[in-house]
Structure formats: structure tokens, C-alpha cells
Q: What sequence folds into this?
């Protein structure tokens, strides 16, 4: 244990790490937009892109890119927090609320597993992505999302660490039980609330 | 698995690697062991309570159990790296927890052939893999393609030379992107598809690839390996550093 430890000779250097109360513990303010991915960037042509809701639903639902674009969409401005310690404030995204998508299926489930091109997965409790808390977004700051940032479309769940906001997302699988996703199986926290600093297993 | 608790390591040795990087050897009494490629979180606390946390790759192999090493590049605009490089002395303590990350790891039993592609200080987790391989006498065929700006910026240069000259299954290919010393026979450009085509294992051998470096470097290297028909699931990447924009 290391309670009360002071690092000899260390002082705050970075005054722009302000105390506006928007930077969670252990995070720092980032102006750029770092890229973090476990493997190669995925490039899916829009004509081959679709988005599905599958699993514990009465009728699975699928949207093509054109159908998806025709859904009611919103623009949201949110702060995002990556478990690698950077936070970025006031990022603007455009896309479709998961409330809108889930309205179109009849389901009996408590959890979702998001799956992406390349095989990445992440798990979320349904009540953490409903009620205006999560979106499938396809534009960032008014432009299509670049492939390295998850374009053509990514999940956006800003109140959790950003690995939950899966890049290149293609489906949500509804489930009655929780299944750890990619990082959640490799030592990262199952929930991932940045304000509770839920970074790793046991946090 | 239990919580990764914060613990205190003590600096027992400091090695200057290049003008901007140092290796810190830390005695960590309760270290639970790690795999090559994993990292630790470091937390600094000022006397006014202000804290800053960052992640650093472990450079030492799992076989060294009484200490861990990290190699830190000093970033001019950084908050933690200037402290670690300029201020920290032998005998000082450092708060850390780990090991973290279970994907960008290599153990000899995972086999190969192994392709390691490093940009700048992205060499650090790959060096842990090279050291692990050496420590256990593994004969997994291994190639390191290592991009540095200048000759003086090559981290672990002497150790890599020594390891490669003693081990015919380990090849080190350098490229220097800014300046090259007289008589330099290595590459002298940024990594590109042609360079990878000449230096990387052919895809028919089903290589296992690890790429670590700045974002643009990793994007280029990963795209280049995909173009060489490497299997996407056998390309593992770790990106770091500022991007300067979006």
C-alpha cells in the first residue's frame, strides 16, 4: 500500500489541466485525438455496411447504410475519457440514439454485446445505453468519422471509458446475461465508469 | 483476480539510453510478475495533493523477477515524463500498479515467426519480447524493423547489436528517417510498403506481428502488412503519442 505517498520534487506543470470539474481522477486534458486500437484499422465500404440488432429479440433487425441515414438523428456534444488517461472535452458527434434503434425491436434482455468489424467486442448493461446515453455515430465535428477513429460508424457511450465506444460497430446482440467483451476479458473493468476510476479488474 | 493495488517501487538504477530517454530500474517488492508487452500505470502526487497518472511499457523480461524496468522518453510538453527523466534519482520511490494489458503480449510458446515493428520509443514493449526470447533461449525466428530519426536516437542500440550478432535467428533492420551517419548501409526513409515488402517475413509463413509506435507510423505499418496479405488477427498494434489534430 502507498497511502499518503508524496513524489519528491513533483509539482503540477500542466496548468491547462484545469479544475473545471470535468476531468475525472487520473485523467489529463488532451487537445488532439489519439488513436488506440488493438489491431489494424478496418475499412468497410458503405455499400457493404449494415447494422443489426440480434440475439434475444422477437425479430432481428437490420439496416443498410441508406436506411440507417434515413433514421432520426441527433447531434450531441460530450466529453470523452480514454482509459489510457486522456480526456477530450466538447467533442461533437452526429448519429442515431440507441433508444431510436431499440424502439424498433421487441426484446427481453438486460445486456448488449457490441461487435465490430475485425472481431472487437464490448459488453454493456442495457440500462446504461438507454435513456439518451448512447448513440451509433457517423460524423465527428461535422465530418464523416475517419477510419482510424472508427468510421464509418462507431458506438458512442461517453459516460463510460472510451473502449466501450466500439469503433467500426456492426451489431448489437441482446442477451439476458452479461458476457465480458474483448478488453473486459483482458484485465479491464467490466463496467468502466471514469468518475469511479473503474479501469481494471477489481477497481 | 484481485484489484491491482498501487504500490511503491524504488529506483535502483538509471541508464541514459539517448539524449531524450532513460531506463529506470525499479525494485518492486510485491511484483506479481508480467508478460512481455505489458505496461504499468505510474502515479505522481504533489505535496498539494495534485496527481498525474500515465502508462509506461515494461522493458524488462518476465524472467527478471526482483525488479522491473521502464524506458521513458522525455516529452517536452509532458507532465510526467520530464519528472521521470529529469528529477527522479536512485533511491527515490515511485508509485505504480500493474501489470496491465493482456493482448499486446508475446510468450515464446506463441511461436512465430515473429515480426516486430517499432517506431521510436515504441521499441520498449518489443524489447521486453526480445529480452524474454533471449532469456529462455528461444529459437523462434524473429525480425525487428526499427525506425528512428537519427543514429543517436536508437534506443538499446548496443544491446540489439550484441543480441543479433550472437543469434542467427534474430535479425535487426534499422531505418533512419532524418539523418544517417557516414557509411550507413541501412534504410534511410520512413517505413513504407516497399520497405516492409523487402524486410518482413512472407505471409505464407503465417507471421505473428507486433507494431508499436506513433499513430501514423502504426497505421502505415499495419496497412503495409495487410497489403502483404498478413492475417489481420495476427497483427497486434499499440499506438501512442499526440496526434496533433483529429
A:
Amino acid at each position: 500500500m502507498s497511502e499518503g505517498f508524496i513524489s519528491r520534487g513533483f509539482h503540477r506543470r500542466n496548468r491547462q489541466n484545469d479544475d473545471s470539474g470535468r476531468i475525472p481522477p487520473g485523467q489529463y486534458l488532451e487537445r488532439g485525438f489519439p488513436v488506440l486500437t488493438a489491431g489494424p484499422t478496418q475499412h468497410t465500404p458503405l455499400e457493404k455496411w449494415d447494422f443489426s440488432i440480434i440475439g434475444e429479440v422477437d425479430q432481428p433487425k437490420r439496416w443498410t447504410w441508406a436506411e440507417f441515414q434515413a433514421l432520426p438523428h441527433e447531434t450531441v456534444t460530450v466529453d470523452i475519457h480514454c482509459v489510457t488517461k486522456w480526456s477530450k472535452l466538447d467533442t461533437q458527434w452526429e448519429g442515431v440514439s440507441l433508444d431510436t434503434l431499440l424502439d424498433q425491436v421487441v426484446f427481453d434482455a438486460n445486456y448488449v454485446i457490441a461487435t465490430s468489424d475485425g472481431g472487437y467486442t464490448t459488453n454493456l448493461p442495457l440500462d446504461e445505453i438507454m435513456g439518451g446515453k448512447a448513440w451509433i455515430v457517423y460524423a465527428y465535428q461535422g465530418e464523416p468519422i475517419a477510419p482510424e477513429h472508427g468510421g464509418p460508424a462507431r458506438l458512442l457511450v461517453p459516460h463510460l471509458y472510451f473502449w466501450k465506444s466500439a469503433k467500426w460497430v456492426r451489431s448489437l446482440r441482446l442477451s439476458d446475461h452479461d458476457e465480458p467483451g474483448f478488453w473486459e476479458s483482458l484485465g479491464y473493468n467490466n463496467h468502466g465508469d471514469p468518475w469511479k476510476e473503474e479501469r481494471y479488474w477489481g477497481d | 483476480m484481485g484489484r491491482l493495488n498501487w504500490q511503491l517501487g524504488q529506483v535502483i538504477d538509471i541508464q541514459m539510453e539517448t539524449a531524450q530517454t532513460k531506463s529506470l530500474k525499479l525494485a518492486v517488492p510485491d511484483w506479481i510478475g508480467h508478460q512481455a508487452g505489458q505496461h504499468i500505470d505510474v502515479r505522481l502526487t504533489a505535496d498539494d495533493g495534485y496527481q498525474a497518472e500515465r502508462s509506461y511499457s515494461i522493458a524488462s523480461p518476465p524472467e527478471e523477477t526482483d525488479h522491473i524496468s521502464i524506458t521513458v522518453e522525455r516529452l517536452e510538453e509532458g507532465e510526467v515524463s520530464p519528472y521521470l527523466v529529469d528529477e527522479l534519482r536512485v533511491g527515490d520511490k515511485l508509485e505504480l500498479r500493474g501489470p496491465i494489458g493482456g493482448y499486446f503480449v508475446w510468450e515464446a510458446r506463441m511461436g512465430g515467426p515473429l515480426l516486430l515493428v517499432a517506431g521510436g520509443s515504441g521499441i520498449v514493449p518489443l524489447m521486453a519480447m526480445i529480452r524474454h526470447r533471449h532469456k529462455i533461449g528461444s529459437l523462434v525466428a524473429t525480425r525487428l524493423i526499427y525506425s528512428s530519426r537519427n543514429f543517436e536516437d536508437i534506443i538499446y542500440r548496443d544491446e540489439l547489436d550484441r543480441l543479433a550478432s550472437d543469434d542467427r535467428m534474430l535479425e535487426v533492420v534499422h531505418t533512419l528517417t532524418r539523418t544517417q551517419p557516414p557509411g550507413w548501409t541501412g534504410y534511410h526513409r520512413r517505413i513504407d510498403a516497399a520497405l516492409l515488402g523487402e524486410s518482413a517475413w512472407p505471409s505464407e509463413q503465417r507471421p505473428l506481428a507486433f507494431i508499436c509506435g506513433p499513430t501514423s507510423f502504426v497505421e502505415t505499418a499495419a496497412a503495409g502488412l495487410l497489403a502483404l496479405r498478413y492475417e489481420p488477427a495476427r497483427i497486434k498494434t499499440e499506438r501512442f503519442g499526440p496526434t496533433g489534430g483529429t
Chain B touches chain A through 54 residues (CB under 8 Å).
